[in-house]
## 1
Amino acid sequence: MSEENTTRIYTVNLSKAWDTPKYRRTDRVINIIKEFTQRHMQTNKVKLDQDLNRHIWSRGKTNPPRKIRLRMIKEDDDTVIVSSFIEEKAPQLEPEESVTEESIVTTESKDSQKE
């Protein structure tokens, strides 16, 4: 990527699609994403990634997602490529074992011996 390329990540609310008839909802979602991209990236050249398109259409024409995370990459020629954004989760570190079953059993047995 050169210095001209800019990448932005947005969460887009798609609930306006539910104002349209059921048989046009997913078409409206595509238009909402394109309009949002044009407004925020200041360009008319918008391309949707094939995986994003499949994700939107995966639940059919009448039941698109309510909101979606998008990654928008503006290239040198003012073309914006929109793809779905998937966060990579950092591996969780396991907390140190403060109390184990063995230590509980050992302390209980010592308490019972004192009595």
## 2
Amino acid sequence: MIVLETKRMLLREMDMSDVENLQGIFADSEAMRYYPKTKNVAETEDWIRWNMSSYRVFRFGLWLALLKENGAFAGQCGLVMQRVDDLPEVEIGYLFLRKFWGQGLATEAATACRDYGVNQLGYTRLISLIDPHNRASKKVAEKIGMAFEKETFMFNKHICVYAFHATASEHPTGPS
């Protein structure tokens, strides 16, 4: 199911047929540099099931990013429910195939997810959780209007929390 459309991409719900595409990221040690480890096929299948559950429970999750021009898989981007310092938070997450790095696709997709979270789901605050050494991810967060808020400890390491706060005009109604 297509969830969002950007200038260059369609974002759709992932399903079990997406294992091979996601393995293009998850088996790449450079793409997974700031994550605990790469993922094998079974772990990727678990990842897809986890996202499918999130779609049912929260009405969002990480979505596949497909290029409009040819339908090629480019990466994943979406909204993820997290617990940060014992508080529920909605994170904008993004991770793309290395061959698409530096083309603005992560920023484009993350902007669409930010707008969806605010305008469709009614959130006034969205975050991104970023490894302190991941400068490219920090740049994406800043380009979509996020600012460094704090550092916390989760996933067995220090993590930077970047936050976006919607203004009253951007957030007509809904949960915060």
